[in-house]
Amino acid sequence: MKEDHRRAKVPLPNANPHATTHVTVENQVALDDAYPVQSVLFRLMEEGLSSLDAIHAIGLVLAERFFAGLREEGQPADLKCGVSGRAEPIDG
């Protein structure tokens, strides 16, 4: 993962959380239909994002849901919700 980022000239100010997010997204992709992540990844790549950028986009949504769950009281956040709805087409 670090080598891929070095080649792509993506800075890693804190590699451990970044790597954890990558592994989480990649594991969800490997689970096929258990999570919507695989179809979102493929859709983002079809829209022109590299696999690295698509993983980053999905990871951002995952991190947002995770931290929102930490702030909420009561029921834990449903981390499955939001990815397919949030990772809509990215303009630019």
Biggest pleated-sheet summary: none
Radius of gyration, taken over Cα atoms and rounded to an integer in Å: 14 Å
Q: What number is the mean pLDDT?
A: 78
Number of strands: 0
Q: Runs with pLDDT <50, length 5+?
A: 87-92
Indicate the percent of residues in helices.
Answer: 55-70%
The coarse silhouette is: globular
Total domains: 1
Task: Offer a concise description of the structure.
This protein is an all-alpha fold. It has five helices and no strands. The relative contact order is 0.13.
Please describe what this structure looks like.
By secondary structure, the protein is mainly α. It has one domain (2-85). The protein contains five helices and no strands. It has helices spanning 2-7, 15-30, 37-46, 51-71, 83-86. The longest helix has 21 residues, at 51-71. The chain is globular, with a radius of gyration of 14 Å.
Task: Give the arrangement of secondary structure elements.
Blueprint: H1 2-7, H2 15-30, H3 37-46, H4 51-71, H5 83-86
Name the features:
single chain; 92 residues; mainly alpha; 5 helices
